[in-house]
Amino acid sequence: MRYAVLGGGKRLRPLLTYASGRALGAPLPRLDAPACAVEIIHAYSLVHDDLPAMDDDALRRGRPTCHVAFGEAMAILAGDALQALAFERLADATALDVDAATRIEMLRTLAAACGAEGMAGGQAFDLAAVGSVLGLAELEHMHACKTGALIRAAVRLGALAAGAGADALAALDAYAAAFGLAFQVRDDILDVEGVTADLGKTAGKDARAAKPTFPSVLGLDASRARLASLTDEALAALAGFGVAADPLRELARYAAARIS
Question: Which of 30, 123, 127, 146 is 20 to 30 A removed from 117 (C-alpha atoms)?
């Protein structure tokens, strides 16, 4: 479990939780548990996604994947235990000083991001799509579940911890939805243009596995244009927020320009 969570990575999802919460004035200690929970869920998902029955990857964050290092059975158990740990942390953190209804909504938000309408459903769609030709709408729906759901949850958890109202939640969800798709478009571009040493995972693997990607559906130039458009959408969603939301803006720009 420690190998999966503490072995590097961008920590982008917890950064989004902190940034959305701070944009609305939440104290940092209140954001620790939701930020940790979302990163633990992300780590669990990577352990399971890398398994031979799923994406069958041998490299993650520049190191052997969990099942390569410890065996498939131990990797499955580590992923299961990490998922449970995330909800335990969110449920019992004393520094998360919100009312019971808000804590339950935070738990529901994280659970929904993991399930059939979120990561698990997106991964099932991804596996079924190998070798198929998808339209843009289908591709974006798949990634809105597989990648975008947890990113939206990360932003929403921070906002809920801050006591956000309906308007702020809606604006931040629009930001997160555009951010999540932009992140995936950039990921797909990097699978074509990136190198393994920078990525920390195997470059070119999606193309070799015949997975539908944004470059395979749109081409590289149109994928870059879609990335720019989605980044603009994310930034536009923050128009009603002041300078306190600048970290969210910078994260959107980073996600669009990153090399790993």
Answer: 30
Taking CB atoms within 8 Å and a gap of at least 24, the contacts of 52-58 are 54/123, 54/127, 55/205, 55/209, 57/201, 57/202, 57/205, 58/202
Domain range enclosing 143: 2-254
- pLDDT confidence of residue 200: 64
In a domain, 113, yes or no: yes
Residue 80 lies in a domain: yes
Which pLDDT tens digit goes with each residue over 122-159? 999 999 998 888 999 999 999 999 999 999 999 999 99
pLDDT in tens, 184-234: 999 999 988 876 766 666 666 777 777 889 999 999 999 999 999 999 999
State the CATH number of the domain containing residue 54. 1.10.600.10
Could you tell me if residue 259 is inside a domain? Answer: no
Retrieve residue 129's tokens. Answer: 């799509």
CA dist 190 → 65, 98, 205, 253, 256 (Å): 20, 40, 11, 16, 11
